[in-house]
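Risk register update: the risk of archive-format incompatibility is retired. Evidence:
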Amino acid sequence: MKPRNDDARTRSQTLLIRPWWEPELAVQGHDPLGEYAEVFWLPVLGPSALCALRWLCRRLVSAPEGFEVPHREFARSLGLGSRSGANSPSVRCLERLGYFHLVRSLEPGSGPMASPGGGPASARGPVDSRCFGVRTHLPELPRHLERRLPRSMRNRS
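Archived output:
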């Protein structure tokens, strides 16, 4: 059996991870490693995306200015295999986190990021960057996403 022919560009790619810090969320938000993330964001994000977010945040705790990680190491650390093409589970996790504005694409060389006035323009869409800002605090689950929660948990977030 032949090994999969992943996109060579993404297979050898190193991800540059930077903190995405917002002063308001630092005061009113929730720790991505805490219980709120598990109780309220898990049903929305799914287990792989939440696990990826927490893995990135744990690394940011020990490297507050950011870090580099080979894409394959990132994927394997999450149990998502070593594929890294556009449709790989690890890329889909990053895209899902971007869809919910918990990760955003940055220009390489960006330092710790504060959100300029209201939110990222590049948070949604395909992962086309190798440098990402990762929220250091989670917002309250938006009301429109509460419908994804089990009935017993709605209106509790």
